[in-house]
Amino acid sequence: MSTNEKIRVDKYLWAIRVFKTRSQAADACDGGKVKMNGNSVKAAKPVAVGDKFEIKTEARKWIIEVTGLISNRVAYSEAVKYYVDNTPEEDKSGTNFMPSVFQTGKRQSKIGRPTKKERRELDDFMGNPED
């Protein structure tokens, strides 16, 4: 990649795998969750080597420094060569949030519609003669 080529912030963050999609990266920029050199930045701003980013994602907080420019998404093992992660250890683990209910994949009771199996059990219990 040539040194004079301009890369957008959203495209760069997507290429180094901070965000899964470019639209998520652009939305984060528009929502003020991405700061470049201490200031909120728009998605179309060009990235330069040496820029420092503070990024807040759903999973964790990132503090990175750009060491190289990349425009196409590559494997994670390749992507880490284009930035230095300066995130403190306590922020790397993501949210230290313990859910109040252990999520097993099943719906919580009394929330939402019953499943087909639960509906049949209810019908059998109530004795509905729909069969």
Mean pLDDT: 83
Helix content bin: 25-40%
N-to-C span: 68 Å
- CATH topology-level name of the domain at 7-92: Structural Genomics Hypothetical 15.5 Kd Protein In mrcA-pckA Intergenic Region, Chain A
CATH superfamily of the domain at 7-92: RNA-binding S4 domain
Account of the protein in words:
This protein is 27% helix and 18% strand. The chain is α+β, with helices and mostly antiparallel strands. It has a 5-stranded antiparallel sheet. A two-stranded antiparallel sheet has the order 1-4. The N and C termini lie far apart (68 Å). The model has no long low-confidence stretch (mean pLDDT 83).
Can you describe this structure in just a few lines?
With 131 residues, the chain is of the alpha+beta class.
Which descriptors would you attach to this protein?
5 helices, 7 strands, alpha+beta, 5-stranded antiparallel sheet, Structural Genomics Hypothetical 15.5 Kd Protein In mrcA-pckA Intergenic Region, Chain A
Topology:
Layout: E1 7-8, H1 9-15, H2 22-30, E2 34-36, E3 39-40, E4 46-47, E5 52-56, E6 61-66, H3 76-79, E7 83-85, H4 89-92, H5 116-126
Antiparallel strand pairs: 1-4, 2-3, 2-5, 5-6, 6-7
Helix pairs in contact: 1-2
